[in-house]
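User: Predict the structure for this protein chain, please.
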Amino acid sequence: MLNGPEFERDTSLLRERVAIDQQLATARAALEEARARRDDVAARRAARLRDLEHADQAVCALDDAPPERAPAVYLHHGAPDRGTLTLERGALRFDGWRGSAVLPLDRIAEVELGVSRLPPRAGVPLLGWLRPGRPRPAETLLLIVLDPEGAVQRRAVVADLADGRGWRERVLARQARLRARLAAEQTLTLRRKQTLEALRAASAELDACARTVAAHERTVAELLRREQAVVERQEFAHAVRRRMERR
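Assistant: Here is the predicted structure, written as structure tokens:
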């Protein structure tokens, strides 16, 4: 039988262990809840990362048409200059013997179609004078280019095109895509900004959740340590009592 002090000691240890077990159950529930919230925030952050990647891809994909090129003659200050006409994403560019000319698509007000009859070597230094060749029919682009204020800045002529009609259609189509791109880019830029803000907020929330989980883990670890200490004290008391009973 237990005497008074032994009974009081065992009862105190039992009460202490029950109290720790209750605290431990509460702490474990809080830890699981914190982990679930952390996982939810991590999933939302991963979704925002995907949204950001999709927004960047959407901006890049607004106009992914490759450059188009064709041989042509550009009237450079009234003199023919033979070279290459290139339709880029945002400009119509000519590179020839005399130099280069860049016509931004958003400043080309009109694109008209005309005809030309130039020798095949017109615009080539020396050969254009010595052996120009026989004139041949071709098509010409007549472009009106505006200055930044919207006034007519110059008239550009690109001649000796094998498919001037097709080039006119492609320039007009690229202008339409450029206008659509600018409008869509504004929307996508705003969406990207909002997504980035949401990502930053989710990252901050995830950091806070991680700190909360760590705090609960420390609490649970401390309670487990205290419980183990009580169990060891109980086992020691039982061992002492068994030795006393055998004597």
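The chain has two domains: 4-58+197-246, 68-182.
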